[in-house]
Amino acid sequence: MSLVSNSSQIAESIAGNLTALDDFGVRGSLIGVIISAVLYGMAVLISVVCVRLLISSKQIYHSKRRLFALCLHNGLMLVCGTEALVSECWLTVQAIERKLSLEMISAAASLADPGIVSTSSTVRVNLSPIVLPLTVWGADGFLIWRCLVLYKGVRGLHRVMLYVFLGSLALMKLIGGCILYYYTSPSHPSVFPVQLLVFSLTAVGNILVSAVIAARLLYAERLSAAFRSSDSTHTDSPYMRALVICVESSGLIAIVALVGVVATITLPHEYNQIIPMIFPQLCVISPLLIVYRIALGRESHIIRQQDTQVLRTPIAFNSAATLSVNPSHAEHGEAYGTITRNDLHQQHINQDQHAVWHSRA
């Protein structure tokens, strides 16, 4: 009777361990690793293309320090994404091995030694990558830096208010990341409330900074509307293109963070680890997309400037062809060899776009 009693106790204990291990997302971690690997491949591809574009087109960035800083930031974020994927794969393999070992022990529970159960009775697996706060800091720091670049011409009280707002936001993100580091230690395995806090702070922070950047760009767009030609559309403005880049990058992180909040509250523990596993890769992709889009836009702007400069030939006043004027266009000032108001306006638009791309990156 004692042997049967011990066997039943062993089976019940191992069944409880299997349930606890499933609660930590062994099945959901496989989904998270697959999605994270796909996103990591996209991040590597974008990073290679971005660095190649920055290095090959030296005319894009006249400052070598800024070029080095952007390449260094991209490299560090990619390293964090690599570490996140490797740690997720390692933790998932460990969780699967422990689950398989417990299932084998459960199948032979009637013959197992009670000492084996005691060694396996404290199975707890935390699949959140340790670099999650670092990637969040990297993406949010890049967003704050973009905001500072756009508001560098602000003086007085508005500048102080901007610094207080961004400093408070950065301090809030720093404290949230430190709390997440503390509660992911082995002595505090219950990390789900802290994940909820970090996702909430990330979503709110990205929405607020995006609103500040959008307000600045819309203000600049309204000021430059008087210099825009009548045949150009509203979407042709460099300010609107910069606004689209900002909304795309910040909205990506904010939406996924909100999904993480909902998933942490509603989904069971088996699947609410998916968002924390893929979130580091999204934080890596977001600044890479910004740098790539800005560098690509500035390169195309330089090409357009070169194409415009080819058409600027010197005026030969002694040439008969230069002195000839088309009678149908003479009254509008469209004579050959003269610079009209449209030419001056186009030069102003080119200079305005060049200033926007330099201020954005």
UniProtKB/TrEMBL annotation:
Protein origin, superkingdom: Eukaryota
Keywords tagged on the record: Membrane, Transmembrane, Transmembrane helix
TM region(s), chain numbering: 30-55, 67-86, 130-148, 160-184, 196-219, 240-267, 273-295
This protein's name: Uncharacterized protein
Lineage: Eukaryota, Fungi, Dikarya, Basidiomycota, Agaricomycotina
